[in-house]
Structures are given as C-alpha cells and as structure tokens.
Amino acid sequence: MKIKKLITTVAIGVGLVAPVFKVSQTQTVEAASINAVAKQNSYVGETYLYKMLQTANIKYNKFYANGNIIKYRKGKPEGIVIHETATPNASAYNEAIYFNREWMNMYSYVHAFVDSKQVIQMMTPNYGVWGAGAIANSRYIQIELCQENTRDKFAKSVNNDAIYAAKLLHRYGIVPTNASNTGQGTIWSHHAVSRFLGGTNHTDPDGYFAKWGYSMDDFFSLLKSYYNLQAGETDASTGQDGVSDSNSTVTDSDPVSQAPTGKKKLMHDAYVYDANGQRTNAPLKTAGIEVNVTATKMINGKKYLQIGENEYVVASNIIGTSRVLTHNAYIYDTTGLRADNTKLLRGTSVHTYGGRINIDGQVYYAISENRFVKAANF
Description:
3 domains, 4-stranded antiparallel β-sheet, 22% strand, globular
C-alpha cells in the first residue's frame, strides 16, 4: 500500500477492477531463480519496535492503547495480508519510526515492516490494525514489505517476509492457502483484498513484484516451503508459552545441568562476549533467532554457550531457569498486554530466560521469545 496516504476502515471502491499482471515464461524462470537465491539467506530474526525505541530513547506510541483495540471476528487472525510500501529507499527502520510517530494522524498501521536487513514487529498480532479496510482489518495479520533496489536485496527481503509469515501461521494454527487469485484462502495480497473484499483500492504488491519478474504465486510457494520446514521443528526445552515439561531436569540450583549443542533458539535478547567474558562490539542478538551452540564454558563463575569463534552468550538466554510461581499469573506480550486469557496457577514450575525485562514500567521474566510473566509473581 502507499503508506503515506490515509487508510480508513470505511469501505470504499468495492467495485473497482484491479489490473491484471501477465506473467511470461521468462518471468517464471526469473521468479524461480529469485526463490532459489532467497533460500540461500539466513533469517534475520524479529526486532520488536518497543525495544528498538527504548535503545534510542524514543517514546513508543502503542497503537492499541486507550481502548483502541481491533478484535478479530473469530478471536484470532484468519490469515495474513502481504503489502508493499511503495516508498523507494525507505527501510523497515525508517517506516517503523515514521509510523510510530504519525499513525494517529494518518489512520494507518500494520503489524510489521520487513526489508533485506530487518523484520520489525510493530505490535502483537493478537489484535487487528488499520491496513486494508474494515473487513480485512478484523481478520488478518498485515505485513509491509519495503522496496529494495537490487535483485539480491529483493530476494533477501522476500525470504525474511516468507519465514516471518510462516512462523506466524504456525503460532496461530493457520494452514497456508493462496487467496490471491480466488479470494478464498489465508494468504492474501492487498490487491486481492481490493478485488474480493473491498474497503480499499490498492493493488500492492503485484506491481512491485512484477518489476522483479515475481508474483504472489511465487511468494506463496516460498512461504509454503518454509511453513513445511518449520512444521518439523520442535523445542524440547519448554512446553507451551515456556511452562516446563513435567520431565524437565533443569532446576534453580542447576540451571544449566544439560548444556545444549546444535541449533538453538534465543529466548531472550543476548549480548555477545569473548572468551574472557568481555562484551564485544557484535550487534545485540534478538530473541527468536537461532544460533549454533558448539560448547559450554565457565567464565568468571558464570556459564556461557559458545556460538562462534570467540563468541559466547550467557547460557540462561537459551536454557533458562525453572522458577515456581508464588501467585497466579497471566501471560503478557511484548508490549505489556495480556496475550490471552491463560492463567498460570500458583505452584506451577515455569521456565524463565535471561534477566528481568522492563516493559512500560512493569518488570517481567521472559518465558519464551515473545511471552512474559510479571516477576512479582515468583
């Protein structure tokens, strides 16, 4: 969508006929090549807007504060709408900063911005946004893909977009089906919303994709391949939302009794340290990304996991510590709102990761990469 234009939830342009983009045999070969290039890239992981703004001392203007909550018609998202910003040379960071500052004036907001370097999640996908008209807003997660100026960067950006979207599908139990040509399914383009649902007249990302010999069908193929790959992934360290499995051997007295090796997910943001325990200049590794753990090392009495040549992270950011709740506790999202109605009961053993986290003045422990419990409940 053209992100600098007003997007309202009032239905408009229901009868508009969107242009059809024809795909030649040459474009089909090009698209297949782009997907092959895309799959050679690693996922960048998610950056949460509120955390990003904290480091820059910028106020987080929460979209769904003060009663501005768009509830999904079925209580959870039914699919995902793929957008494109139509703003050349604007990165995910640029767009996130702009939207945080201006959304209340432009009446537009989305769940995430994606480019070749970052996936910036603006808010929890548990609630709707103002992105594609009233019907879509109350049904779908909405992701904006930023414009890139080289083929390699474009491939990286759609790779990040596809992996992020696939993760969200698994999170909400949604099976990917392509709605872009029929108006029936779970993966929509903004163009398809205009054609089949109304409330908007935008045609993105079709035109931008066509520039690279690409299409929504090609993107869906890439997303589906990652969805299938992720279906085989398991995390044996925790149950749902970080609650320890009944056979867990990790305790407070021995929080890293079984050091993992191989690919592991960071459950808490982690700084990178050298073999002497000194913080390096490497960028902060954000919760949710995978690292390759090769060894365990005690440094100055603290346990670290080696993730590269002379690169270590604090072990508790991956393995965690088992804590017993002394009060009943709700689970919160990355912006401090209840993730759902789940209540963890007093006496339950819960895995927490890393140090305490401050969200909007409240102190929490992470129980997964994007779920938190108030520290006062332990």
